[in-house]
Design a protein that fits this description.
The protein contains 4 helices and no strands. The longest helix is centred in the C-terminal third of the chain and has 25 residues. The radius of gyration is 22 Å and the shape is elongated. It starts with a helix and ends in a 17-residue tail after the last helix.
Length: about 110
């Protein structure tokens, strides 16, 4: 057990590296997004939420391409992308961009 912990401690993505502490710090974005779910959609910034979506998408790719792969960073930004896309949909609905379409009556009159 101690050797496993020692191996993790000294690994290229262990707690002695930025590959570990960067994702740990970025979980704050996810926590903030989750906390904002209770706020009214009028308080959401569409520009900032869009920027956060692009940011997380770019860093998901980075986490996948960097060697060694940084799965902690990938999970963090995948979670943030999910939260931010939900917030963006709340903002769009609040602005009227995603309002439900009015259903038209498609009843055909019987031909005689």
């Amino acid at each position: 057990m101690a050797s496993r912990f020692q191996a993790f401690l000294n690994s290229p993505v262990g707690p002695k590296t930025t590959h570990f502490w960067g994702p740990v710090a970025n979980w704050g974005f996810v926590a903030a997004g989750l906390a904002d779910m209770n706020k009214p959609p009028e308080m959401i910034s569409g520009n900032m939420t869009s920027a956060m979506c692009v940011y997380s998408a770019l860093f998901m790719r980075f986490a996948w391409m960097v060697q060694p792969r940084n799965y902690l960073l990938l999970a963090c930004h995948a979670s943030n992308e999910t939260v931010q896309l939900y917030q963006l949909s709340r903002w769009a609905r609040g602005q009227g961009y995603l309002s439900p379409q009015k259903e038209e009556e498609l009843e055909e009159k019987p031909s005689q």
